[in-house]
Structures are given as C-alpha cells and as structure tokens.
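Sat 14:20. Reprocessing the chain from the morning session after the first attempt stalled halfway. Input below, unchanged.
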Amino acid sequence: MKNEQTKRILNQAVADLSQFSIVIHQTHWYMRGEGFLVYHPKMDEYMDDINERVDVVAERLITIGGSPYSTLEEFKTNTKIKDEPGTFDKSMVERIENLLEGYRYLADLFRQGIDITEEEDDIVSQDIFTSMKADFEKTIWMLSAELGKEPGL
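Finished this time. Tokens:
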C-alpha cells in the first residue's frame, strides 16, 4: 500500500495535536498568578492554532486515503502527550514549561514526518510538516525567552 508510514505519522499528529489542545485548554482554565492577563488570552490563540492544524493534518490524511482518529478514545489510546488532572497549584513557570515540553515533542514528531514523507516521496505532506515544525520552533523560542532561557533547538 502507498504511503503507509506517512499515513501513520499523520494520524499520530492528529492524536497528539488533539491531546495538546486539551493540555493548552487546561492551562487556560487553571492558571493563576502573575502574568494571568497576558497568558490567558494567549492560550486562546494557541488553542485556535492547534485546532486549525489538526484539521489540516486530518484532511491531508483523508486526501491520501487514510482515516484520521476522531474519537476521544482513539486520541487517548494513541497520543504520546501526557494527560493529568487539572489543578490550581502549579505556577505560571511550571505551566509554560509543560507547554514547552509539548511543543518540543510535536516539533520532533514533525521532524520525523519530514523524514518519512521524504522516503515516501509525498512532498505535500512534507511541506505541511516542515511548515508546522518551523512555526512550533518559533513558539518554542518565544516561550523559552519568556522563561529567560535559550530555545535549545
């Protein structure tokens, strides 16, 4: 079958982006403290961005003959992004570090997608992964800078 590895990594991205949207949403709901007025609306931007990207990835998967995960159970079973109950006892720094972890994981997943799509000669899917990786690296830089750190890319 054609592009099987590409289909698998696109579906992994569907599961992980969907889960990461929940992580960002949880950050949005459970944040308190210094920076709240800045970070709270920023989480809306991040959620909107992630949700648009899920749609792009899922539609590409359908276009090449795949079937995207579409249930909470499938997302939960297939994601590699951790899930934990919401709590008000985390600092803003801890919340940003958690977001950085997710963005770093996804940037690495996209790098894997670039390699796989190169092997399977799917330049359209490769372009999607390349663009998302670049955008996420910029977000990593910005979140790292907020913490007074180098992005470490």
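DSSP finds five helices and no strands in the chain.
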